[in-house]
Each structure stands twice: as structure tokens, then as C-alpha cells.
Amino acid sequence: MRALVTGANGFLGSHLVDLLLETGDWELRTLVRRTSDLRWLQGKPIELVYGDVTQAPSALSPALSDVEVVFHIAGLTKAVKKKAFYVVNEQGTENLFQACFLQEKPPSRFVLVSSAGAQGPSQADAPLLEDDEPNPVTEYGRSKLAGERIAAKYMNRMSIVIVRPGGIYGPRDTEFLPIFDGVNRGLLTRLGFSPGVINVAHVKDVAKAIRLAGTVAAAKSETFLIGGVNINQVDLGRTIGRVLGKKFLFPLVIPKVLFRFAALLSSGVGKLTSKPRIFTYENTSRILAKNWSLNMSKAQNILGYQPEFDLESGLKDTLNWYRSENLL
CA 189 to CA 247: how far, in whole Å? Predict the structure, then answer.
């Protein structure tokens, strides 16, 4: 089966490429920018096509020639200007769909990798369900929801599946590195006095879910929340401590007002330098939300999704990679 993977050079995309190649059933084409770091794709039996989802559909059309499945992972997670999120996450999705319909035979399945951020945190004490009313709390989340609404326009024209991963960690990613670093220094950090609940999944488990979304017939026209373990930030820190072999961690409570002030300063630096940052004032709405726990029963029942990594083994795998890269 021939597939196009956008964002294939990135954290999640490169792991999906590895997984698909392991099965031996896929011919892979990847859409990457000429400025992309191709470290995780080098030496692999894939076809590289240079392009960008912000290009016109006619320019993207060659990348989709004879493709049966599209795994659309490319997206913008940080930006200086809010408009940039929509240029990539909304209009880029539209461009890719339009390019599909320029083909004599459009792809038979389109998997849109969105985010739990498109739905927003749970408004109740219970975990999020796919049918809960979307209420994204960041511009990133709103732009991903806008991309989902683009996909909804084409549901009656092709087989489309939307997946919404929660937090993702694992080798090749450094977003979790500051948490590891803090615990390695002996600190058990808590934001405020009431720790929020998040969902974290190993990247290989999320890649497996995306592959299933591209192959399971019953997944057509469905949306799935994908994750691993629901856990509060303090227990996550304690688990990282066990993985690091730390016998004692000093509890450090950072008041939410101080955290927001630091984020405001970080946002200001980003604007002054024109360099996008993850740690922004707007993102405090996501980070400080009370409940990002996910109910994954739908993915389990329809996709047959079952995470292989428990939290401790997944964190050990991540730690080994950090050490191999001399990051910790």
C-alpha cells in the first residue's frame, strides 16, 4: 500500500514512518520542506517529495499521485502571530484535501492527526469523550479544530478519520526534557496547590493508533481520542524520580500567578525576537487546566488500540534516549 506522510521528519511523523516500514506492507512517500532536518529519515527506503502544505493544491498534487492513504501529521505548534496557526493547520489541511481531488483516483483514506487541544480540557471531573462539546483554550487548539472542520466538509466524498492525541513523550522529543531535568536536580515541582490531571502516551503507541486509523475499515468518518495514562503532574514527577533513581525529591510549589507572570515574560521575549516559543502566556490556559484526562474506550473498541508502554517503561525508554544524546 502506498501512503503519503506529511510532517514525516518530525517527532511523531518519523516514528510513524518507522512503524509502517517495519510491517513491510507500505511504500512511503514523505512531504518535507527543503529546510527540514531529515535526521530521522536518512537511509530509509522512502521517497522524499519537497513541498509545504501552505502551497497551492496544484503544487501539492504530484505528492499525492497514486497514493492510497494520507497520514496528515504536519502542523504548527508554536507561532509568534496567531494567524500563522491557521495558515498551516486550517488552510494547509484544505490545500491537501483539494490536492487529493485533483487526482484521477483520490486516496481511499485520509487520516488527519489533530490534537486533544482541539477539544479542550474536560469541563467535568470525568475524562474527555469524543462527543463532548469542543472548547479549545489556545489559538493552537482552535486552529486544529478549524482543520477538523475542513475535514468534515469532505466526509461524504472520501474515507476520513480524525485522531486527537493527548500529551506525547518518547525518544526524539525534548518537550518533556525540562521535567526530567527538574526531577534530576531533586525537585518535585507543582503548579499551584491543586495539581491538574493530564494524559501522556509514548510516541510509539500513538504512531500505532494512527496506523490503525489508516487501515481499520470501521474507523471511517470517526474521531478518536488517543492517549496512554491519565496522571496528575505530581505523580508524573514521582514516577520520573523512580526512573532516575531519586530517593528523595524536594517539593516545590510554584504559585499560578508567578507561573503566569513568567509565561508573560517569555511571550514578550518571543515577540521581541520574532522566535516562536511553546512557553507563552496563552499556553498557561492549557498547562494549568484542571482536567486533560482522556477516555479512550472508543479507540479501544473500534480501532483495537491498546497502549503497549506502561508509564515507567516508557519513561525509561525516553531517559535512555536523552542520555544517548547527552541531553541529561
Answer: 16
Burial class (CB in 10 A: 0-12, 13-18, 19+), 67: buried
pLDDT computed for residue 85 by the predictor: 93
The answer as to whether 233 is a domain residue is: no
**146-152: long-range contacts (C-beta < 8 A, 24 or more apart)?**
146/86, 146/89, 146/90, 147/75, 147/89, 147/90, 147/92, 147/93, 147/112, 147/114, 147/118, 148/112, 148/114, 148/118, 148/223, 150/90, 150/93, 150/94, 150/97, 151/93, 151/97, 151/110, 151/112
Query: Under a CB-based contact definition with an 8 Å cutoff, are residues 258 and 80 in contact?
Result: no
Q: Is residue 184 part of a domain?
A: no
CATH (domain of 53): 3.40.50.720
CA distance 293 to 65: 39
State the virtual CA torsion across 185, 190, 196, 199 in degrees, nearest 10.
Answer: 0
Identity of the amino acid at 193 = F
pLDDT at residue number 114: 97
145-204: pLDDT as tens digits: 999 999 999 999 999 999 999 999 999 999 899 999 999 999 998 887 778 899 999 999
- Per the structure, the complete domain to which residue 94 belongs is given by 2-168+201-228+293-308
Give the number of other Cβ atoms within 10 Å of residue 65's Cβ.
Answer: 15
Is residue 245 domain-resident?
no
Q: Residue 326: exposed, middle, or buried by beta-carbon count in 10 A (0-12, 13-18, 19+)?
A: exposed
The pTM assigned to this predicted structure is 0.94
What percent of the chain clears pLDDT 70, i.e. is strictly above it?
Answer: 100
The stretch 239-268 carries a mean pLDDT of 86
What does the pLDDT read at residue 243? 95
From residue 265, give the alpha-carbon distance in Å to each of 68, 137, 281, 286: 47, 20, 8, 17
Looking at the DSSP bridge assignments, the partners of residue 110 are: 70, 160
Identify whether 36 is part of a domain.
yes
Task: Examine the pLDDT at 288 and tell me if it is beyond 80.
Answer: no
Domain count, the chain: 1
Instruction: Give the tens place of pLDDT for each residue, 199-213.
Output: 999 999 999 999 999
